[in-house]
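User: Can you predict the 3D structure for this chain?
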Amino acid sequence: MEVCYGARTPMESGRVVNATDADFRILVEHLPDNIIVHRDGLIVYVNPSTLAYLGYERPEDLVGLPVRSITHPEDRDGVTERIQAIADDPGDMGLPREQRLLRRNGSVVTAEFIARLVVFEGKPAVLAVARDVTERKQMQSRLMLTDRMASVGTLAAGVAHEINNPLAYVIANLGFVSEEVSALASEYRDETNLSTRLGELEATLREAREGADRVRQIVRELKAFSRPDEDRRGPVEVRRVLESAINMAWNEIRHRARLIKDYGETPAVMANESRLGQAFLNLLVNAAQAIPEGKADHNTIRVTTRVDDLGRVVVEVRDTGVGIPPDVLPRIFDPFFTTKPLGVGTGLGLSICHGIIAGFGGEITVESKVAVGSTFRIVLGAARTSEPEVKASVPVAKAARRARVLVVDDEPMIGSSVRRALGREHDVEAVTSAREALDRIVRGRNYDVVLCDLMMPEMTGMDLYEELRKAAPAEMERLIFLTGGAFTPRARTFLDAVSNQRVEKPFDMKSLRAMIRDRLR
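Assistant: Here is the predicted structure, written as structure tokens:
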């Protein structure tokens, strides 16, 4: 057999490689790459690597078939175009091209092809060399998805901040109206009809506040899970982090299983709250996705906390899902390994869990049985904490005098809602610009308390603090920062460096009143 590469005739252009049939077969039949030779659109030769790659046993299973028959339908036109291009310019191999192939079992693989016109067994044919890139393509897709997830996490912090602003004045105004209605109901309790109607209004407002509080909790949890990857550690209450993770995963869980909480008393663990929450969230979502939708009454996800014999904290997430096959189990913590369809899982969740827990000096293990379910177990060392100092309780006293309060926030409704809520006890002014606040203070306007938003356009609360340090040092200590989420590195560094109190939006007016009372003592 004579095989000539890169020429229309066996001796053209000095680029001919002659090979005997035996030499050719020794060469190509031992190559790890896939070799396919086709003529007039029909396969005339495949090497053993190609048979294994496509799931066939004998060359006769493929020889004689149209090359289009093993090509993904969406890629067949491209194959035809490439064959024509090779016929027009036999010496040009062109750039490697990706093409999807159909395996015998119907699954799809992706290969990178280079093809040229050759003389095979005395006749022109196309020789294609294919290298499998299926895993590389899947990894690229997962990396792209991971990048999108990272972008969503970054955006989530900003979205949480924007939601907190309107939510702050909604909750403050609801609280004010609720207090007014309650006072009116008490004042007119002898007038039955009016008292009844006011009671209904009070109940309605209470329900509205509960709904707003639920939104506030969701936003706080969203903000916690979208924080940048910091390595700050301290004592963390496991149960509280679990509850936050459950709230985040609840939409995945509720359609698939009943959630059972079996919490035992546990000490705090030394960890990073955000990272630990991410590990718990990944395990909960993984447990939910192991259970088919629509049979929530027949399946359970049980979350257990306890202390083992060594005093370590143990957290278990047990599901009644499909289970993990024994041959897959050793790989589940490998990066990018997943049995889920593309777009459902990144193959990073369990790998990230393993990295997080190992970073805390703990361990994560799994037990699983197909069609029975899986149990993921996290073990963490208890945090060493000193005995808390016992302080005598001091009764909260009402402010002895009216304070002069300045509210600085670029959201006008926050200023008006705070002024309305505090106006009976204190003299409240509100401005929407830190520069205006600075001007008032520099001109000699004195305030007992300045409630200042941390993040504002043009001039931030941090900038106001620095300007006061230069112009009116005594006043900068009167700042209490209002923050909807310190999501910039500068903001986090600033809050860590200063001793000023801060209040997270949406804030509770009772807590704010108590904070102001403490300032006036």
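The CA atoms of residues 214 and 220 lie 10 Å apart. The radius of gyration is 34 Å.
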